[in-house]
Amino acid sequence: xxxxxxxxxQAAGDKTTVRILMAHEMETGQRKDAAGKTIxxxxxxxxxxxxxxxxxxxxxWGPAVSKNPFMQFTLKGAKAGDKxxxxxxxxxxxxxxxxxxxx
Amino acid sequence: MKxxxxxxxxxxxxxxxxxxxxxxxxTALAYSKDAFDAKSVADALKAVGxxxxxxxxxxxxxxxxxxxxxxxxxxxxxxxxxxxxxxxxLLVEKNPNAVVAIFNTSExxxxxxxxxxxxxxxxxxYAIAVMNDGKALFAKKEVKVTLGGCGG
Amino acid sequence: MRTTTSLSxxxxxxxxxxxxxxxxxxxxxxGIAEYRALLQDGNPAELxxxxxxxxxxxxxxxxxxxxxxxxxxxxxxxxxxAFAELPRYFPDTGRVQDMESRLLTCMExxxxxxxxxxxxxxxxxxxxxxxEGLVAWISAESKGLPLNLPQSHASERRxxxxxxxxxxxxxxxxxxxxxxxxxxxxxxIRLQDLPNLTKNPGAGDGFGAWPAxxxxxxxxxxxxxxxxxxxxxxxxxxxxxxxxxxxxxxxYMGVNGKGGKTTAPAIKR
Lengths: 103, 152, 269
Description:
The complex is a heterotrimer of chains A (about 100), B (about 150) and C (about 270).
Chain A: E1 6-12, E2 15-21, E3 44-51, E4 54-61, E5 70-76, E6 83-90, E7 95-101
Antiparallel strand pairs in A: 1-2, 2-5, 3-4, 3-6, 6-7
Chain B: H1 4-9, H2 33-37, H3 41-47, E1 55-56, E2 60-63, E3 67-68, E4 74-80, E5 85-92, E6 99-104, E7 112-117, E8 123-131, E9 136-145
Parallel strand pairs in B: 1-9, 3-9
Antiparallel strand pairs in B: 2-4, 4-7, 5-6, 5-8, 8-9
Chain C: H1 9-15, H2 28-40, H3 45-57, E1 88-90, E2 95-97, H4 99-109, H5 115-120, H6 126-140, H7 154-168, H8 178-182, E3 188-189, E4 192-193, H9 202-207, E5 212-214, E6 219-221, H10 223-233, H11 244-256, E7 266-268
Parallel strand pairs in C: 5-7
Antiparallel strand pairs in C: 1-2, 3-4, 5-6
Helix pairs in contact in C: 3-6, 7-11
Pfam family, one (chain B): SoxY
InterPro entries (chain B): SoxY, SoxY_sf, Sulphur_oxidation_SoxY, TAT_signal
Protein name (chain B): Thiosulfate oxidation carrier protein SoxY
Protein backbone atom coordinates (compact mmCIF):
# COMPACT_ATOMS: atom_id res chain seq x y z
CA UNK A 1 0.00 0.00 0.00
CA UNK A 2 1.49 3.35 -0.98
CA UNK A 3 2.31 5.94 1.63
CA UNK A 4 -0.35 8.52 2.51
CA UNK A 5 -0.64 11.88 0.77
CA UNK A 6 -0.42 15.17 2.61
CA UNK A 7 -3.44 17.27 1.78
CA UNK A 8 -3.94 20.82 3.03
CA UNK A 9 -7.07 22.75 2.15
CA GLN A 10 -7.41 26.32 3.41
CA ALA A 11 -10.48 28.41 2.80
CA ALA A 12 -10.16 32.17 2.36
CA GLY A 13 -13.47 33.74 1.50
CA ASP A 14 -15.02 31.96 -1.45
CA LYS A 15 -11.80 30.27 -2.53
CA THR A 16 -10.09 27.24 -1.03
CA THR A 17 -6.47 26.56 -1.87
CA VAL A 18 -5.78 22.85 -1.94
CA ARG A 19 -2.17 21.66 -1.78
CA ILE A 20 -1.29 18.01 -2.14
CA LEU A 21 1.95 16.09 -1.74
CA MET A 22 1.84 12.52 -3.01
CA ALA A 23 4.36 9.79 -2.27
CA HIS A 24 5.26 8.16 -5.56
CA GLU A 25 8.45 7.26 -7.43
CA MET A 26 7.22 8.64 -10.79
CA GLU A 27 9.80 6.53 -12.63
CA THR A 28 10.13 7.77 -16.21
CA GLY A 29 11.23 4.54 -17.82
CA GLN A 30 14.27 6.41 -19.16
CA ARG A 31 16.70 5.39 -16.44
CA LYS A 32 18.95 2.36 -16.40
CA ASP A 33 20.06 0.48 -13.33
CA ALA A 34 23.67 -0.38 -12.45
CA ALA A 35 23.51 -3.49 -14.67
CA GLY A 36 22.38 -1.41 -17.64
CA LYS A 37 18.78 -2.62 -17.61
CA THR A 38 16.03 -0.05 -18.09
CA ILE A 39 14.04 0.63 -14.92
CA UNK A 40 10.40 0.24 -15.95
CA UNK A 41 8.13 3.26 -16.04
CA UNK A 42 5.99 3.57 -12.92
CA UNK A 43 3.99 6.72 -12.54
CA UNK A 44 0.64 8.22 -11.56
CA UNK A 45 -1.64 8.48 -14.58
CA UNK A 46 -4.92 9.76 -13.18
CA UNK A 47 -5.71 12.14 -10.37
CA UNK A 48 -9.16 13.03 -9.14
CA UNK A 49 -10.33 15.26 -6.35
CA UNK A 50 -13.77 15.43 -4.83
CA UNK A 51 -15.56 17.84 -2.52
CA UNK A 52 -18.05 16.21 -0.15
CA UNK A 53 -18.18 13.23 -2.50
CA UNK A 54 -18.66 15.19 -5.73
CA UNK A 55 -15.87 15.08 -8.32
CA UNK A 56 -14.41 18.53 -8.82
CA UNK A 57 -11.13 17.89 -10.57
CA UNK A 58 -9.66 15.29 -12.89
CA UNK A 59 -6.21 15.29 -14.44
CA UNK A 60 -4.04 12.98 -16.51
CA TRP A 61 -0.35 12.83 -15.75
CA GLY A 62 2.69 11.45 -17.52
CA PRO A 63 6.03 10.35 -16.08
CA ALA A 64 7.45 13.86 -16.47
CA VAL A 65 5.68 14.94 -13.31
CA SER A 66 8.35 15.06 -10.60
CA LYS A 67 8.88 12.34 -8.02
CA ASN A 68 6.80 12.80 -4.87
CA PRO A 69 4.43 15.01 -6.84
CA PHE A 70 3.07 18.31 -5.63
CA MET A 71 -0.17 19.72 -6.95
CA GLN A 72 -2.07 22.87 -6.09
CA PHE A 73 -5.46 24.07 -7.26
CA THR A 74 -8.18 26.43 -6.10
CA LEU A 75 -11.69 25.25 -5.29
CA LYS A 76 -14.67 27.52 -5.65
CA GLY A 77 -17.46 27.52 -3.11
CA ALA A 78 -16.01 25.26 -0.43
CA LYS A 79 -16.04 26.17 3.24
CA ALA A 80 -14.39 25.10 6.46
CA GLY A 81 -15.50 21.63 7.49
CA ASP A 82 -16.03 20.37 3.93
CA LYS A 83 -14.36 17.08 3.02
CA UNK A 84 -11.77 16.91 0.27
CA UNK A 85 -10.74 13.52 -1.06
CA UNK A 86 -7.91 12.97 -3.53
CA UNK A 87 -7.33 9.76 -5.46
CA UNK A 88 -4.48 8.76 -7.69
CA UNK A 89 -4.12 5.75 -9.92
CA UNK A 90 -0.83 4.67 -11.49
CA UNK A 91 0.14 2.70 -14.57
CA UNK A 92 0.39 -0.50 -12.54
CA UNK A 93 -3.22 -0.14 -11.49
CA UNK A 94 -2.31 0.75 -7.91
CA UNK A 95 -4.40 3.42 -6.31
CA UNK A 96 -4.52 5.51 -3.16
CA UNK A 97 -7.17 7.80 -1.70
CA UNK A 98 -6.72 10.23 1.16
CA UNK A 99 -9.04 12.75 2.75
CA UNK A 100 -8.69 16.10 4.43
CA UNK A 101 -11.02 18.65 5.95
CA UNK A 102 -11.10 22.22 4.71
CA UNK A 103 -9.80 24.50 7.44
CA MET B 1 -8.36 -2.36 -15.94
CA LYS B 2 -9.44 -3.41 -12.45
CA UNK B 3 -13.13 -3.21 -11.70
CA UNK B 4 -14.38 -0.59 -9.28
CA UNK B 5 -14.69 -2.98 -6.32
CA UNK B 6 -11.09 -4.14 -6.68
CA UNK B 7 -9.81 -0.57 -6.97
CA UNK B 8 -11.70 0.60 -3.92
CA UNK B 9 -10.53 -2.24 -1.69
CA UNK B 10 -7.02 -1.00 -2.29
CA UNK B 11 -7.81 2.54 -1.15
CA UNK B 12 -7.07 3.77 2.31
CA UNK B 13 -10.21 5.80 2.95
CA UNK B 14 -12.99 4.10 1.12
CA UNK B 15 -15.97 4.31 3.45
CA UNK B 16 -17.22 7.73 2.45
CA UNK B 17 -16.47 7.28 -1.21
CA UNK B 18 -17.92 3.84 -1.73
CA UNK B 19 -21.31 5.07 -2.80
CA UNK B 20 -20.34 8.37 -4.34
CA UNK B 21 -18.68 9.35 -7.57
CA UNK B 22 -15.03 9.16 -6.53
CA UNK B 23 -14.39 8.00 -10.08
CA UNK B 24 -15.77 9.44 -13.23
CA UNK B 25 -18.28 7.21 -15.05
CA UNK B 26 -16.78 5.20 -17.92
CA THR B 27 -18.19 7.54 -20.55
CA ALA B 28 -15.98 10.37 -19.27
CA LEU B 29 -12.49 11.16 -20.57
CA ALA B 30 -10.24 8.10 -20.70
CA TYR B 31 -6.49 8.39 -20.14
CA SER B 32 -5.07 10.24 -23.14
CA LYS B 33 -2.31 7.75 -23.94
CA ASP B 34 -1.70 9.13 -27.44
CA ALA B 35 -1.10 12.62 -26.08
CA PHE B 36 1.48 11.34 -23.60
CA ASP B 37 3.18 9.21 -26.26
CA ALA B 38 3.50 12.17 -28.59
CA LYS B 39 7.02 13.49 -28.96
CA SER B 40 6.34 17.03 -30.10
CA VAL B 41 3.98 19.77 -29.01
CA ALA B 42 2.28 19.64 -32.41
CA ASP B 43 1.69 15.88 -32.23
CA ALA B 44 0.36 16.18 -28.69
CA LEU B 45 -2.19 18.75 -29.78
CA LYS B 46 -3.29 16.56 -32.67
CA ALA B 47 -3.73 13.69 -30.22
CA VAL B 48 -6.19 15.69 -28.10
CA GLY B 49 -8.18 16.73 -31.15
CA UNK B 50 -6.95 20.28 -31.67
CA UNK B 51 -7.67 21.64 -35.14
CA UNK B 52 -5.21 24.05 -36.71
CA UNK B 53 -2.11 25.66 -35.28
CA UNK B 54 -2.20 27.00 -31.70
CA UNK B 55 -2.32 30.78 -31.23
CA UNK B 56 -0.28 32.66 -28.66
CA UNK B 57 -2.56 34.39 -26.16
CA UNK B 58 -2.13 36.84 -23.33
CA UNK B 59 -5.12 35.19 -21.64
CA UNK B 60 -3.18 31.98 -21.02
CA UNK B 61 -0.27 32.04 -18.62
CA UNK B 62 2.67 29.78 -17.82
CA UNK B 63 4.44 30.63 -14.57
CA UNK B 64 7.70 29.28 -13.31
CA UNK B 65 11.31 30.08 -12.53
CA UNK B 66 13.66 31.38 -15.21
CA UNK B 67 16.36 29.03 -14.02
CA UNK B 68 16.11 25.70 -12.23
CA UNK B 69 18.93 24.40 -10.08
CA UNK B 70 17.89 20.89 -10.90
CA UNK B 71 15.73 19.74 -13.78
CA UNK B 72 14.22 16.97 -11.68
CA UNK B 73 11.85 19.37 -9.97
CA UNK B 74 10.68 22.52 -11.74
CA UNK B 75 7.60 24.24 -10.26
CA UNK B 76 5.22 25.33 -13.03
CA UNK B 77 1.69 26.73 -13.15
CA UNK B 78 -0.74 26.82 -16.04
CA UNK B 79 -3.68 29.18 -15.88
CA UNK B 80 -6.37 30.96 -17.82
CA UNK B 81 -9.43 33.04 -16.97
CA UNK B 82 -11.04 32.43 -20.36
CA UNK B 83 -14.40 30.69 -20.62
CA UNK B 84 -14.98 27.77 -22.97
CA UNK B 85 -11.79 25.94 -22.07
CA UNK B 86 -11.93 22.15 -22.01
CA UNK B 87 -8.41 21.37 -20.82
CA UNK B 88 -5.21 23.06 -19.72
CA UNK B 89 -2.06 21.26 -20.78
CA LEU B 90 1.48 21.60 -19.51
CA LEU B 91 4.23 20.71 -22.00
CA VAL B 92 8.02 20.80 -22.09
CA GLU B 93 9.16 21.12 -25.67
CA LYS B 94 12.52 19.40 -25.38
CA ASN B 95 11.44 16.49 -23.18
CA PRO B 96 11.43 13.01 -24.75
CA ASN B 97 7.62 13.29 -24.70
CA ALA B 98 6.30 16.82 -24.63
CA VAL B 99 3.19 16.47 -22.44
CA VAL B 100 3.67 16.64 -18.68
CA ALA B 101 0.07 16.88 -17.51
CA ILE B 102 -3.44 17.53 -18.73
CA PHE B 103 -5.86 19.23 -16.34
CA ASN B 104 -9.56 19.06 -17.14
CA THR B 105 -11.39 22.28 -16.33
CA SER B 106 -14.58 22.22 -14.32
CA GLU B 107 -17.03 24.71 -12.88
CA UNK B 108 -15.84 23.81 -9.40
CA UNK B 109 -12.20 24.76 -9.69
CA UNK B 110 -10.32 27.74 -11.05
CA UNK B 111 -8.47 27.05 -14.27
CA UNK B 112 -5.17 27.46 -12.47
CA UNK B 113 -3.05 24.44 -11.67
CA UNK B 114 0.40 24.12 -10.17
CA UNK B 115 2.65 21.11 -10.23
CA UNK B 116 6.31 20.21 -10.60
CA UNK B 117 7.82 18.81 -13.76
CA UNK B 118 11.02 17.13 -14.84
CA UNK B 119 12.95 18.97 -17.51
CA UNK B 120 15.60 16.97 -19.33
CA UNK B 121 17.38 20.14 -20.45
CA UNK B 122 16.80 23.86 -20.82
CA UNK B 123 13.62 24.21 -22.80
CA UNK B 124 10.55 26.24 -23.61
CA UNK B 125 7.61 25.20 -21.46
CA TYR B 126 4.03 25.66 -22.63
CA ALA B 127 0.64 26.23 -21.11
CA ILE B 128 -1.94 25.31 -23.73
CA ALA B 129 -5.66 25.90 -23.32
CA VAL B 130 -7.66 23.48 -25.47
CA MET B 131 -10.97 25.18 -26.21
CA ASN B 132 -14.35 23.53 -26.56
CA ASP B 133 -14.36 24.44 -30.25
CA GLY B 134 -11.14 22.51 -30.87
CA LYS B 135 -8.81 25.50 -31.08
CA ALA B 136 -5.73 25.91 -28.90
CA LEU B 137 -4.30 29.01 -27.21
CA PHE B 138 -0.85 29.00 -25.66
CA ALA B 139 1.71 30.84 -23.59
CA LYS B 140 5.34 29.85 -23.33
CA LYS B 141 8.46 30.73 -21.39
CA GLU B 142 12.02 29.51 -21.36
CA VAL B 143 13.35 27.66 -18.34
CA LYS B 144 17.08 27.20 -18.10
CA VAL B 145 18.14 24.01 -16.40
CA THR B 146 21.56 23.55 -14.86
CA LEU B 147 21.30 19.81 -14.32
CA GLY B 148 18.90 17.68 -16.40
CA GLY B 149 16.16 15.76 -14.62
CA CYS B 150 15.18 12.73 -16.70
CA GLY B 151 18.12 10.38 -16.23
CA GLY B 152 19.82 9.15 -13.07
CA MET C 1 11.30 38.03 -23.41
CA ARG C 2 9.56 36.74 -20.34
CA THR C 3 5.83 36.18 -20.51
CA THR C 4 5.27 35.34 -16.89
CA THR C 5 2.30 36.49 -14.87
CA SER C 6 1.44 35.07 -11.50
CA LEU C 7 -2.22 34.20 -11.21
CA SER C 8 -1.73 31.40 -8.73
CA UNK C 9 -2.44 32.55 -5.18
CA UNK C 10 0.22 30.27 -3.79
CA UNK C 11 2.92 31.58 -6.07
CA UNK C 12 1.93 35.17 -5.32
CA UNK C 13 2.37 34.58 -1.62
CA UNK C 14 5.79 33.07 -2.18
CA UNK C 15 7.05 35.48 -4.81
CA UNK C 16 5.74 38.50 -2.94
CA UNK C 17 8.83 38.58 -0.81
CA UNK C 18 11.09 38.91 -3.82
CA UNK C 19 10.77 42.48 -5.03
CA UNK C 20 12.32 42.74 -8.46
CA UNK C 21 11.99 45.79 -10.69
CA UNK C 22 9.82 44.82 -13.62
CA UNK C 23 12.26 45.70 -16.38
CA UNK C 24 15.50 44.59 -14.68
CA UNK C 25 17.41 41.52 -15.72
CA UNK C 26 17.57 39.02 -12.89
CA UNK C 27 20.98 37.93 -11.72
CA UNK C 28 21.65 34.22 -11.62
CA UNK C 29 21.69 34.31 -7.83
CA UNK C 30 18.26 35.97 -7.80
CA GLY C 31 16.99 33.41 -10.28
CA ILE C 32 18.18 30.55 -8.10
CA ALA C 33 16.69 32.23 -5.02
CA GLU C 34 13.35 32.48 -6.80
CA TYR C 35 13.52 28.80 -7.78
CA ARG C 36 14.22 27.82 -4.19
CA ALA C 37 11.42 30.02 -2.86
CA LEU C 38 8.95 28.37 -5.23
CA LEU C 39 9.84 24.98 -3.78
CA GLN C 40 9.42 25.89 -0.11
CA ASP C 41 5.69 25.22 -0.04
CA GLY C 42 5.02 21.53 -0.37
CA ASN C 43 8.37 20.07 0.68
CA PRO C 44 8.29 16.30 0.11
CA ALA C 45 10.16 16.03 3.43
CA GLU C 46 6.69 16.32 4.95
CA LEU C 47 5.97 12.82 3.65
CA UNK C 48 8.98 11.60 5.63
CA UNK C 49 7.91 13.55 8.70
CA UNK C 50 4.57 11.75 8.69
CA UNK C 51 6.32 8.39 8.55
CA UNK C 52 8.72 9.40 11.28
CA UNK C 53 5.97 10.37 13.66
CA UNK C 54 4.33 6.98 13.11
CA UNK C 55 7.62 5.15 13.59
CA UNK C 56 8.30 6.96 16.86
CA UNK C 57 5.00 5.72 18.30
CA UNK C 58 4.96 2.26 16.75
CA UNK C 59 5.93 -0.81 18.80
CA UNK C 60 8.78 -2.34 16.82
CA UNK C 61 11.85 -4.54 17.08
CA UNK C 62 12.56 -7.70 19.06
CA UNK C 63 11.37 -5.99 22.23
CA UNK C 64 8.17 -4.76 20.55
CA UNK C 65 8.55 -1.31 22.09
CA UNK C 66 8.03 2.21 20.80
CA UNK C 67 10.57 5.03 20.88
CA UNK C 68 8.41 7.12 23.16
CA UNK C 69 10.80 6.71 26.11
CA UNK C 70 13.84 7.69 24.05
CA UNK C 71 15.85 10.49 25.63
CA UNK C 72 17.15 12.87 22.97
CA UNK C 73 18.72 15.13 25.57
CA UNK C 74 15.74 16.92 27.04
CA UNK C 75 14.30 13.96 28.92
CA UNK C 76 12.66 10.68 27.95
CA UNK C 77 10.12 11.20 25.18
CA UNK C 78 10.74 14.94 24.82
CA UNK C 79 11.09 15.60 21.10
CA UNK C 80 10.19 19.29 20.83
CA UNK C 81 13.36 21.34 20.80
CA ALA C 82 15.70 18.35 21.08
CA PHE C 83 17.16 18.66 17.57
CA ALA C 84 18.29 22.23 18.18
CA GLU C 85 20.50 21.05 21.05
CA LEU C 86 22.19 18.10 19.38
CA PRO C 87 24.89 16.83 19.46
CA ARG C 88 25.33 16.81 23.22
CA TYR C 89 26.77 14.65 26.01
CA PHE C 90 24.66 11.76 27.35
CA PRO C 91 25.55 10.39 30.80
CA ASP C 92 23.97 6.98 30.16
CA THR C 93 26.36 6.22 27.29
CA GLY C 94 29.17 8.50 28.46
CA ARG C 95 29.45 9.89 24.93
CA VAL C 96 28.69 12.99 22.93
CA GLN C 97 26.03 11.88 20.46
CA ASP C 98 24.21 13.42 17.51
CA MET C 99 20.58 12.72 16.62
CA GLU C 100 21.30 9.62 14.55
CA SER C 101 23.75 8.16 17.03
CA ARG C 102 21.21 8.68 19.78
CA LEU C 103 18.48 7.06 17.71
CA LEU C 104 20.70 3.99 17.33
CA THR C 105 21.14 3.91 21.12
CA CYS C 106 17.39 4.04 21.66
CA MET C 107 16.59 1.58 18.90
CA GLU C 108 18.96 -0.89 20.55
CA UNK C 109 18.18 -0.40 24.23
CA UNK C 110 14.43 0.20 23.92
CA UNK C 111 13.52 -1.84 20.85
CA UNK C 112 16.24 -4.50 20.75
CA UNK C 113 17.58 -3.68 17.30
CA UNK C 114 21.25 -4.32 16.49
CA UNK C 115 22.75 -0.82 16.27
CA UNK C 116 25.96 -2.04 14.67
CA UNK C 117 24.01 -3.78 11.94
CA UNK C 118 21.98 -0.63 11.25
CA UNK C 119 25.19 1.37 11.10
CA UNK C 120 26.47 -1.01 8.42
CA UNK C 121 23.23 -0.88 6.42
CA UNK C 122 23.56 1.25 3.28
CA UNK C 123 21.65 4.53 3.24
CA UNK C 124 18.09 4.21 2.02
CA UNK C 125 17.74 0.52 2.86
CA UNK C 126 16.15 -1.41 5.71
CA UNK C 127 16.23 0.42 9.02
CA UNK C 128 18.24 3.22 7.42
CA UNK C 129 15.08 3.98 5.45
CA UNK C 130 13.15 4.23 8.71
CA UNK C 131 15.80 6.53 10.15
CA GLU C 132 15.04 8.95 7.30
CA GLY C 133 11.51 9.32 8.59
CA LEU C 134 12.58 9.61 12.21
CA VAL C 135 15.19 12.32 11.58
CA ALA C 136 12.80 14.26 9.36
CA TRP C 137 10.13 14.33 12.06
CA ILE C 138 12.44 14.97 15.00
CA SER C 139 14.11 17.89 13.24
CA ALA C 140 10.71 19.27 12.22
CA GLU C 141 9.79 19.38 15.90
CA SER C 142 12.53 21.99 16.35
CA LYS C 143 11.89 23.92 13.18
CA GLY C 144 12.57 27.62 13.55
CA LEU C 145 14.24 27.30 16.93
CA PRO C 146 17.71 28.77 17.44
CA LEU C 147 20.57 26.29 17.51
CA ASN C 148 21.71 25.96 21.10
CA LEU C 149 24.18 23.10 21.45
CA PRO C 150 25.45 22.77 25.02
CA GLN C 151 29.17 23.14 25.73
CA SER C 152 28.91 22.76 29.50
CA HIS C 153 30.39 19.26 29.70
CA ALA C 154 34.11 18.72 29.17
CA SER C 155 33.39 16.03 26.55
CA GLU C 156 31.29 18.52 24.59
CA ARG C 157 34.10 21.06 24.58
CA ARG C 158 36.58 18.41 23.57
CA UNK C 159 34.30 17.29 20.73
CA UNK C 160 34.27 20.87 19.47
CA UNK C 161 38.08 21.02 19.44
CA UNK C 162 38.34 17.63 17.74
CA UNK C 163 35.77 18.73 15.20
CA UNK C 164 37.72 21.90 14.51
CA UNK C 165 40.91 19.90 13.92
CA UNK C 166 39.05 17.55 11.59
CA UNK C 167 37.46 20.45 9.74
CA UNK C 168 40.84 21.86 8.79
CA UNK C 169 42.60 18.53 8.28
CA UNK C 170 43.85 18.24 4.70
CA UNK C 171 43.95 14.69 3.43
CA UNK C 172 43.06 12.43 0.55
CA UNK C 173 44.48 12.49 -2.98
CA UNK C 174 43.29 16.06 -3.55
CA UNK C 175 44.54 17.40 -0.24
CA UNK C 176 41.07 18.69 0.51
CA UNK C 177 39.74 19.65 3.91
CA UNK C 178 36.20 20.59 4.83
CA UNK C 179 37.64 24.08 5.01
CA UNK C 180 38.65 23.97 1.36
CA UNK C 181 35.00 24.45 0.40
CA UNK C 182 33.46 25.68 3.64
CA UNK C 183 36.20 27.61 5.35
CA UNK C 184 35.71 31.10 3.92
CA UNK C 185 33.02 33.41 2.58
CA UNK C 186 32.10 33.63 -1.06
CA UNK C 187 32.96 30.12 -2.24
CA UNK C 188 30.86 28.42 -4.88
CA ILE C 189 30.67 25.14 -6.80
CA ARG C 190 29.04 25.82 -10.17
CA LEU C 191 25.77 27.49 -9.18
CA GLN C 192 25.73 26.44 -5.54
CA ASP C 193 26.94 29.02 -3.03
CA LEU C 194 28.82 27.19 -0.28
CA PRO C 195 28.12 28.21 3.31
CA ASN C 196 31.07 29.25 5.45
CA LEU C 197 30.70 26.77 8.28
CA THR C 198 33.26 28.37 10.57
CA LYS C 199 30.87 31.09 11.76
CA ASN C 200 27.37 32.50 11.45
CA PRO C 201 25.37 32.99 9.32
CA GLY C 202 26.88 30.18 7.24
CA ALA C 203 27.22 27.73 10.11
CA GLY C 204 23.66 28.22 11.33
CA ASP C 205 22.24 28.15 7.81
CA GLY C 206 24.28 25.13 6.80
CA PHE C 207 24.01 22.99 9.92
CA GLY C 208 20.43 23.95 10.61
CA ALA C 209 19.24 22.85 7.17
CA TRP C 210 19.98 19.12 7.51
CA PRO C 211 18.15 16.73 7.40
CA ALA C 212 16.93 17.88 3.99
CA UNK C 213 15.00 16.55 0.99
CA UNK C 214 17.24 16.55 -2.05
CA UNK C 215 15.25 17.05 -5.23
CA UNK C 216 18.09 15.78 -7.41
CA UNK C 217 17.63 12.29 -6.03
CA UNK C 218 14.24 12.59 -4.42
CA UNK C 219 15.74 11.39 -1.14
CA UNK C 220 15.72 12.54 2.44
CA UNK C 221 19.30 12.97 3.69
CA UNK C 222 20.23 13.19 7.33
CA UNK C 223 23.39 14.92 8.49
CA UNK C 224 25.16 11.55 8.56
CA UNK C 225 24.47 11.02 4.88
CA UNK C 226 25.41 14.60 4.09
CA UNK C 227 28.78 14.16 5.84
CA UNK C 228 29.29 10.79 4.20
CA UNK C 229 28.87 12.42 0.81
CA UNK C 230 31.23 15.25 1.74
CA UNK C 231 33.89 12.65 2.56
CA UNK C 232 33.20 10.98 -0.78
CA UNK C 233 33.58 14.25 -2.64
CA UNK C 234 36.89 14.89 -0.91
CA UNK C 235 37.99 11.40 -1.88
CA UNK C 236 38.35 10.50 1.82
CA UNK C 237 37.54 7.01 3.10
CA UNK C 238 33.89 6.78 4.17
CA UNK C 239 33.32 7.63 7.83
CA UNK C 240 31.60 5.15 10.10
CA UNK C 241 27.89 5.86 10.45
CA UNK C 242 27.32 7.91 13.61
CA UNK C 243 31.03 7.63 14.44
CA UNK C 244 32.85 9.99 16.80
CA UNK C 245 34.41 11.73 13.79
CA UNK C 246 31.04 12.66 12.36
CA UNK C 247 29.71 13.73 15.75
CA UNK C 248 32.75 15.94 16.38
CA UNK C 249 32.31 17.67 13.03
CA UNK C 250 28.63 18.19 13.80
CA UNK C 251 29.49 19.73 17.19
CA TYR C 252 31.96 22.10 15.53
CA MET C 253 29.40 23.27 12.95
CA GLY C 254 26.48 23.39 15.36
CA VAL C 255 28.31 25.38 18.01
CA ASN C 256 29.56 27.79 15.35
CA GLY C 257 25.94 28.12 14.29
CA LYS C 258 24.64 29.05 17.75
CA GLY C 259 21.56 31.23 17.49
CA GLY C 260 20.90 30.38 13.86
CA LYS C 261 17.29 29.33 13.30
CA THR C 262 16.87 25.78 12.02
CA THR C 263 15.05 25.14 8.76
CA ALA C 264 15.26 21.35 8.85
CA PRO C 265 13.90 19.40 7.20
CA ALA C 266 14.75 21.75 4.35
CA ILE C 267 14.52 21.27 0.60
CA LYS C 268 17.73 21.27 -1.36
CA ARG C 269 18.97 20.74 -4.87
